[in-house]
Amino acid sequence: MWNAQRIILRLFVGIIACGNFSIFDSIAQSYPAKAVRILVGYVPGGAVDFTARLVGQKLSENLGQPVVVENRPGATTAIATERVARSPADGYTLLLIPISTAIQSALRANLPYDLKRDLAPVSLVSIGPFVLVVHPSLPVRNVKELIALARSQPGKLDVGSPGVGSANHLAGELFNMRTKIKVVHVPYKGSGEAVIAAASGLVPVSFPSLAGALPLLGSSRLRALAVTSAKRVSLLPSVPTLDEAGLPGYDYSAWYGVSAPAGVPKDIIARLNAVLSKVVPELKESLNKHGFEPQTSAPEQFAALIQREIERSAKLIQLTGLKAE
């Protein structure tokens, strides 16, 4: 009698499971049936916002539904990340996740989400370096002169960034550590505000993305001293790398990708990944014009990259003594 009950129970569980798979298949096949949102953790105008809008347009064309970019700035992407983490797991709310989001997981112990538990990586989208820039009023023409000036005026030079724990901030902290100088960090609400502050002279030093810096470099409102990547970039062929400028091995670039709330059906994640794999290479010209290289990945590869970034950032934070404000 007991064996018969166990057989019936197993059959019942199997029927339920099959029913659930059918539901998930149906959801995936009809996805998307309405507009999709991509949340951005910064104000409009920076590299993250630019990337989200490029990707959103292509996703819309290929998914057949509007893709709306929604800016939720604050707490160096933590506000936008929490919003996505708490959204329904239906694929209609996505996050343009930058390197800064991984850094926050290494920096802050009290985040209202767990990046590994609460988000489902979809794909990497692009990578690109930062550029060390100064306001033209600063009497320096190269990295060596900047270091000498900072040493002659310890604690008097400011460096702006999109926020505490942003990748731009860590690029500056790594520069401080490698040169044994102290350029004081000034956080802003986003990349756009930070680069405008540098161009207006409110802060004399900054590490913006190429996307944010290029228009101001072209109008001579900023002066480029070096790029943070291991190799020079074609858009600034005369600008050396920090490695060439006297900091051997300095290599620090940003990456950007797309994530969804944890629990989104795997079929939807797979569909989004397939569409991104198709459309991101089509963005090569647009991305290259702003100093980015298109690069996609499997969800598992992107998850591994995020984890490596958290671990690398934790080591850098420990070495520099960086504290969340």
Rough outline? globular
What is the count of helical runs? 12
Q: Mean pLDDT, rounded to whole units?
A: 90
Strand arrangement, largest sheet?
2-1-3-10-4-11
Rounded to an integer in angstroms, the radius of gyration calculated over CA atoms is 22 Å
β-strand number:
11
Structural class: alpha/beta
- Strand content is 15-25%
Whole-number count of domains:
2
Largest sheet: 6 strands, mixed
- CATH C-level of the largest domain: Alpha Beta
CATH architecture of the largest domain: 3-Layer(aba) Sandwich
Helix content: 40-55%
Assembly form of the protein: single chain
CATH fold annotation of the largest domain: D-Maltodextrin-Binding Protein, domain 2
- List the helices and strands in order: HEHEHEHHEEHEHEHEHEEHHEH
In CATH, the homologous superfamily of the largest domain goes by the name Bordetella uptake gene, domain 1
Question: Summed up, what is this model?
Answer:
By secondary structure, the protein is α/β, with parallel strands linked by helices.
Q: Could you characterize the architecture of this molecule?
A:
- The chain is of the alpha/beta class and 325 residues long.
- It folds into 2 domains: 11-127 and 254-320, 3-Layer(aba) Sandwich (D-Maltodextrin-Binding Protein, domain 2), CATH 3.40.190; 131-227, Periplasmic binding protein-like II (D-Maltodextrin-Binding Protein, domain 2), CATH 3.40.190.10.
- It has 12 helices and 11 strands.
- It has helices at residues 2-30, 47-63, 78-85, 99-107, 115-118, 143-152, 167-179, 191-199, 210-218, 266-279, 284-288, 299-320; strands spanning 36-40, 67-71, 93-98, 119-129, 131-134, 158-161, 184-187, 205-206, 223-227, 253-261, 293-294.
- Helix 2 (47-63) crosses helix 10 (266-279) and helix 4 (99-107) crosses helix 12.
- The model is unreliable at 5-13 (pLDDT under 50).
